[in-house]
Amino acid sequence: MSDSLSTEEHALFDAFVSAAVTVQRGVGGDLQELNRTLSEYLTMRHLSEAPAGRLRIGELATAAFVSISRMSRIVEKLEHEGLVERETDVNDRRASFAVLTEAGRRWLREARNPYEASVRRHFLRLLDPGGASSLAATAHQLTGGATGVGSARRRP
Predict the structure, then answer these.
(1) Tens digit of pLDDT for each residue in 22-69?
(2) Reduced to 3 states, what is the DSSP secondary structure of residue 97?
(3) I want to staple 64 with a disulfide (CB 3.0 to 4.6 A). Which of 28, 29, 31, 42 is the partner?
């Protein structure tokens, strides 16, 4: 097999990237109506699912698919709005945790239905049941089987 991609391989990759960006923009656009970005929503959702509602900034960055510096800015913004608090890690003063506040939990509860409706509208309703299963298996393979906070692995 040559190192060059075939026309079909280029088309497949382009379609995959286009689909991911289209879904992200659609859901993100809907969240703008709630004055949030998709990354902010994912940050608060992952915090709500974590033990004691707290995670290290690096774990949050991985879970929300952003860089650590971007996550620091997201946490700073949410902290300024009273939705999260930042705590220093007593075991490693260089690291910090983001902690979801009660106001953050309340906002997330209110945003859950619009978010889920958006995911359905821009993604789930477009898949047939067989396609959804196949896509889930492919996504699992592409991520190396990683799921959940802190488990995403980088593949070579």
Answers:
(1) 999 999 999 999 999 999 999 999 999 999 899 999 999 998 889 999
(2) strand
(3) 42
As given in the structure block, the two tokens for residue 15 are 């379609």
Q: Determine the pLDDT at residue 56.
A: 93
| Residue 1, pLDDT score | 55
DSSP 38-94: HHHHHHHHHHHHSGGGEEEHHHHHHHHT--HHHHHHHHHHHHHTTSEEEEEETTEEE
Q: Is 35 left (phi over 0), alpha (psi -120 to 50) or beta?
A: left
- Secondary element (H or E) of residue 18: helix 7-32
Question: Regarding beta strands 84-89 and 54-56, do their DSSP bridges make them parallel or antiparallel, or are they unpaired?
Answer: unpaired
Q: How many Cβ atoms from other residues are within 10 Å of residue 151's Cβ?
A: 13
Could you tell me the pLDDT band of residue 153, with boundaries at 50, 70 and 90?
Answer: very low
Instruction: Tell me which residue has tokens 């382009």.
Output: 14
pTM of the predicted model as reported, rounded to 2 decimal places: 0.83
